[in-house]
């Protein structure tokens, strides 16, 4: 058995700490109670500390377990914040939109549509070049 533990181990730990039962934690994590039990045992082995008192009513946190909950919840909040930041930065469009079209089409269609686009995606810059060059038909 390894002496290292992972963020996943802390998630299993928090699920048991919040529910007080392996089966309820397993349902929340969409896994089996055997897996939850094994992950708790691995975490306790890695930390060399007993985190729960097992009794007929379920699992109750030890003093060390209560201290770990506080730290694990901070880690959980930071992990969620990081995930949200990454998700936001990946999903947010950025850059320069360049369009070149005859003036009549540009005035009629593109200006309105690009203004709407810019309201939805503020980081985008837009530049419209008016010209009368015929570039042919695009399929």
From TrEMBL:
Keyword annotations: DNA-binding, Transcription, Transcription regulation
DNA-binding keyword on record: yes
Listed InterPro entries: LysR-type_TF_proteobact-type, LysR_HTH_N, WH-like_DNA-bd_sf, WH_DNA-bd_sf
GO biological process: one example: DNA-templated transcription
GO molecular function: DNA-binding transcription factor activity; sequence-specific DNA binding
Pfam families recorded: HTH_1
Source organism superkingdom: Bacteria
SUPFAM superfamilies assigned to the protein according to its UniProt record, in alphabetical order: Winged helix' DNA-binding domain
Ranges for domain HTH lysR-type: 5-62
Family: Belongs to the LysR transcriptional regulatory family.
The protein, known as: DNA-binding transcriptional LysR family regulator
Species: Paenochrobactrum gallinarii
